From TrEMBL:
Transmembrane segments: 12-32
Organism field: Campylobacter gracilis RM3268
Protein name: Uncharacterized protein
Keywords assigned by UniProt, alphabetized: Membrane, Transmembrane, Transmembrane helix
Keyword Transmembrane helix: yes
Length: 47
């Protein structure tokens, strides 16, 4: 999917929350569990 198309899907979401969604999608589709853990920990530290 083109990045512009992806951005268009989330044009109604504030930029800060858009980044959370991108990180969440990466965490879901990233195959390594340790990396998933680090990403979710990163989200936890941000919130």
């Amino acid at each position: 999917m083109c990045f512009n198309e992806f951005k268009a899907l989330f044009h109604f979401i504030p930029l800060g929350f858009e980044i959370y969604i991108l990180i969440f999608l990466i965490a879901l589709f990233y195959p390594f569990r340790i990396c998933k853990f680090l990403i979710f920990r990163f989200i936890f530290l941000l919130s």
